[in-house]
Give the backbone structure.
Amino acid sequence: MNRIIITLVGKDRVGLIATMCNYLAQNNINILDIKQTTVQEYINMMMIVDIDGFQGVFSDLASGLESVGESIGCIVKAHREDIFNMMHRI
């Protein structure tokens, strides 16, 4: 399993999660876990996804997700799980 961490931060509005999920489904990416927190009108979402079915390279996926984020007015970032774990290891 090849997992990545996706984060989304921005102002909440109708369709944010649907837009993200549609992009992932179109690229054969499976959502393994999802957590979101909404504080007043702001949303912070984190997803763990499996990219084994993705046909492409990580940089294409990361830039595609950033473009989706721009289209919905949010900041969306993708992190490789191994890098994410190393960054947060003490």
User: Anything to note?
Assistant: The chain has one domain: 3-87. The first strand starts at residue 3 and ends at 11.
